[in-house]
């Protein structure tokens, strides 16, 4: 699928007017993305405590591995959510599906906060946790295809990168909120208090967040692209079947699996796995590990916003390939800084990687939305993206933890990050530039 960048300059497409209704719709699209990432962030940041509460074992490594297994399992259910909710989105509209998904996500996350511990009900505690994680997996699977397509379709030509980057920034802010909340609890509560009840508080916060998100999403309008397709009778009755039986769409779905490799591995290694790694392997305090992550997220929030705007001017390919190959170059040196045992050097290495990662993260979702036509956008985008995320992202903490335990090498996360970055970089060189073209109808 080699292709040259479109010859059309960025200013060839005038910016569409942004109405109040469009702004409300964009905010509604962002809310679900925020809650999705908040849940994942909280789970990763309190993984050490969850290991004790739900998976008690004589060996701490075993408990952590079991906890990350519970983290990884729902990611293999995400493609199911993407296929089902994506098909709904292409048949009945993005807005209706997004209302269902935000309800599922906020309720299942809040229910984790009221689960009894292993000490109280025995094996039913981890079973309950895994079942709720399956519900979250379904909702998370449906959210990217529907949510980011909804944003891209509302954005209008000439600013899709900027608008969809708001969702990427929302993910960083969600993780930052989860990090700061976990850091606050770690600082003010004893270990016993955290294990007894403190870990529940970040999960329970998802309920009021979900209520706010549900209200805002109800005020949103359906995306103009889907509304137009519905009016013209161009909505397909079998979007999933069409996606898999159309050669061009199948090839694009293949790119959707491989292109986000750095996005998947970088997110889970840098932001979800890193706090546990710094504490358990590098012997930082739990608070120091969380603070390093918080600084990365704060810097990354501004970096992804800049990347989204920049991609509207120079294109998606340059940023995707440049950031991926940049991570190949700086991955090992920055990781070396993380392993020096110094908080200051750890911050430097982490921030450099976060900035490089933002070049991919800031434009990935808009790029994937631009690969597909309206009639199959949510299902094709969602299935491809979630397959790649399940394989290379959701299983990353478990895989990395297991390899470290087996080899004794603390360089495993860096090796994983650099290898996936290289593959993502070469894949980015093969995509067609889409920044300066209208969305496919």
UniProtKB/TrEMBL annotation:
Its membrane topology: Multi-pass membrane protein
The keyword DNA-binding appears for this protein: no
Domain of life: Bacteria
The organism of origin for this protein: Streptomyces luomodiensis
Keywords: Cell membrane, Membrane, Symport, Transmembrane, Transmembrane helix, Transport
Residues annotated as domain Major facilitator superfamily (MFS) profile: 25-432
TM regions (residue ranges): 65-85, 97-115, 121-142, 163-185, 197-216, 252-274, 286-307, 319-338, 344-364, 385-405, 411-431
Name recorded for this polypeptide: MFS transporter
Ranges in a coiled coil: none
UniProt key word Secreted: no
Alphabetized Gene3D superfamilies for the sequence: MFS general substrate transporter like domains (1.20.1250.20)
Localization, UniProt: Cell membrane
Family (UniProt): Belongs to the major facilitator superfamily. Metabolite:H+ Symporter (MHS) family (TC 2.A.1.6) family.
InterPro entries: H+-coupled_symporters, MFS, MFS_dom, MFS_trans_sf, Sugar_transporter_CS
């Amino acid at each position: 699928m080699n292709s040259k960048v479109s010859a059309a300059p960025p200013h060839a497409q005038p910016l569409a007017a942004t109405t109040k209704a469009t702004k409300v719709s964009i905010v509604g699209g962002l809310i679900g993305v925020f809650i999705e990432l908040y849940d994942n962030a909280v789970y990763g940041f309190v993984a050490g405590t969850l290991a004790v509460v739900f998976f008690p074992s004589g060996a701490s490594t075993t408990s952590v591995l079991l906890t990350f297994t519970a983290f990884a399992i729902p990611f293999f259910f995400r493609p199911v959510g993407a296929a089902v909710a994506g098909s709904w989105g292409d048949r009945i509209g993005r807005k209706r599906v997004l209302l269902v998904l935000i309800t599922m996500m906020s309720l299942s996350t809040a229910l984790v906060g009221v689960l009894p511990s292993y000490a109280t009900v025995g094996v039913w505690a981890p079973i309950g946790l895994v079942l709720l994680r399956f519900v979250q997996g379904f909702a998370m699977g449906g959210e990217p295809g529907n949510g980011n397509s909804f944003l891209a379709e509302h954005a209008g030509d000439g600013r899709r990168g900027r608008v969809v980057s708001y969702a990427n920034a929302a993910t960083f802010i969600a993780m930052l909120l989860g990090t700061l909340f976990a850091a606050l609890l770690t600082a003010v509560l004893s270990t016993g208090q955290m294990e007894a009840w403190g870990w529940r508080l970040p999960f329970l916060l998802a309920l009021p967040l979900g209520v706010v998100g549900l209200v805002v999403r109800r005020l949103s309008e359906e995306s103009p692209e889907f509304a137009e397709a519905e009016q013209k009778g161009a909505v397909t009755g079998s979007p999933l079947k069409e996606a898999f039986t159309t050669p061009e769409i199948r090839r694009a779905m293949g790119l959707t699996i491989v292109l986000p490799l750095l996005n998947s591995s970088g997110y889970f290694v840098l932001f979800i796995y890193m706090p546990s790694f710094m504490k358990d392997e590098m012997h930082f305090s739990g608070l120091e590990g969380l603070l390093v992550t918080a600084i990365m997220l704060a810097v990354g929030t501004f970096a992804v916003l800049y990347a989204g705007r920049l991609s509207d001017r120079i294109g998606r390919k340059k940023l995707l390939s440049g950031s991926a190959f940049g991570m190949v170059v700086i991955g090992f040196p920055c990781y070396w800084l993380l392993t020096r045992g110094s908080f200051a050097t750890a911050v430097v290495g982490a921030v450099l990687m976060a900035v490089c990662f933002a070049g991919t993260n800031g434009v990935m979702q808009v790029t994937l939305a631009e690969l597909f036509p309206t009639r199959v956008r949510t299902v094709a985008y969602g299935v491809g993206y979630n397959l790649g995320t399940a394989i290379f992202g959701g299983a990353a903490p478990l895989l990395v933890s297991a390899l470290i335990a087996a080899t004794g090498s603390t360089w495993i996360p860096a090796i994983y990050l650099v290898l996936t970055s290289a593959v993502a970089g070469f894949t980015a060189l093969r995509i067609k530039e889409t920044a300066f073209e209208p969305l496919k109808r």
